[in-house]
Write a structure and sequence with these properties.
Layout: H1 2-12, H2 25-33, E1 39-43, E2 51-58, E3 60-64, E4 75-80, H3 85-96, E5 101-107, H4 110-118, E6 124-126, E7 135-137, E8 149-156, H5 162-180, E9 185-187
Parallel strand pairs: 4-5
Antiparallel strand pairs: 1-8, 2-8, 2-9, 3-6, 3-7
C-alpha cells in the first residue's frame, strides 16, 4: 500500500523530499528516538506517548509448501539475527512447552529468511504478510505451540513539521482501514 500512499501524498506535497528507510525495528527505533526519523512504522518495543496507532497481527508458524527436509522431533528454526521479536517469540513458546528445537538458519535480512524457508530446511515465525508462493502455514502434524500476536506501532516525532504529520495521518488512516477489512487483524 505504501507506493499508492506516497503517490497521493506527493500530489498534495510536491516539493517535499522523502528519505525512506527500511530496516530492523530496533535500529529504526533508535534512529527515531535520536530525532533522525520523523515517522516510524515498526514492531512495537514498548508503549510510547507518540504512537498514532497500534496494530496487532497474529504470528504464524510458516514452512515451505513442500514440507521439511528433515523429519525429527527437533524443530528446525530459521530466524533473523538477534534482536528480533519474532525470534524471541518462537524460542520462548518452544522453551515454555518443552519442545526441542535448533537454530537451522539465521539471516540479517528477510530475503535470507525466505530462502531458508523455501529450501525446506526450517520453519519460521512471521505474520500472514510473509506468505507467498512456496511458503504457507506450517502443517498441523508438526504440532507447533501457539504464538502471541505481533504488535506494530506508527509513531510521529514530537514537533514534527506539518508535511510529516500529514503523511503520518494518511498512513494511520490507511492502516486502520486495511486492518479493519481483515478479521484476523486487530487494531488497538
Amino acid at each position: 500500500m505504501l507506493p499508492g500512499l506516497l503517490r497521493l501524498f506527493a500530489r498534495s506535497h510536491p516539493r517535499v523530499r522523502l528519505d525512506l528507510r527500511i530496516g530492523r525495528s530496533k535500529e529504526l527505533t533508535i534512529a527515531f528516538d535520536q530525532g533522525q526519523i520523523d515517522i516510524l512504522l515498526a514492531m512495537r518495543q514498548s508503549a510510547a506517548a507518540d504512537e498514532l496507532i497500534v496494530l496487532r497481527e497474529q504470528m504464524l508458524w510458516l514452512c515451505s509448501d513442500r514440507g521439511l527436509v528433515t523429519d525429527t522431533d527437533e524443530v528446525p528454526l530459521a530466524v533473523l539475527d538477534a534482536p528480533c521479536g519474532f525470534r524471541t517469540a518462537a524460542i520462548s513458546v518452544l522453551e515454555a512447552t518443552g519442545r526441542r528445537f535448533r537454530i537451522a538458519a539465521t539471516s540479517p535480512s528477510l530475503s535470507g529468511l525466505r530462502a531458508a524457508v523455501l529450501s525446506s530446511i526450517a520453519v519460521t515465525t512471521r505474520t500472514e504478510l510473509f506468505l507467498s508462493a512456496g511458503i504457507g502455514r506450517a502443517p498441523e502434524h508438526l504440532a507447533l505451540p501457539s504464538l502471541p500476536p505481533a504488535e506494530f506501532s506508527l509513531r510521529l516525532r514530537t514537533r514534527a513539521e506539518e508535511p510529516a504529520a500529514d503523511l503520518a495521518a494518511l498512513l494511520a488512516d490507511e492502516l486502520r482501514q486495511d486492518w479493519a477489512q481483515r478479521p484476523e487483524r486487530i487494531s488497538a
